[in-house]
Amino acid sequence: MRVVIAAVGKPRDRHLAAAIDDYETRAARYWPLDVAEVREGSGRGTSPEQASEREGDRLLERIPHGAVVVLCDERGERLTSAQFASLLGQSRDRAQSLAFIIGGAFGLAESIRASASRTIQLAPWTLPHEMARLVLAEQLYRAGTIARGEPYHK
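-> structure tokens emitted (154 positions)
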């Protein structure tokens, strides 16, 4: 089992990048974690749909064969931290990789939506992709502590 975070763009703010790195490092103690950052689509001379499709193609290339694709989208299913930990634990028990997809400023391409097995909500609001990545990384860490019965989750 591997956990992949496939995200559009790199964090631009150094403080936010440091927080993301911290939680991804913590999460990697519990789940084999790979991070795939893909280049953002340019909005110049193209439609937002075309830009998101290009980003979607790049994201699809980074998803391991056989991985369950989970989109992170405000219209997705709401899970508690315990339910999220259970999702990860079930995937671990089945030796099935999970690929969490975080879109960019143009949203998620239809090609990505079509490949998804599940869509989850990180928040009921639209988050900047850097913030979505931080929230996801923290929840992956939290899920690991829940799975091991450690005291972080209260």
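The chain is about 45% helix and 20% strand.
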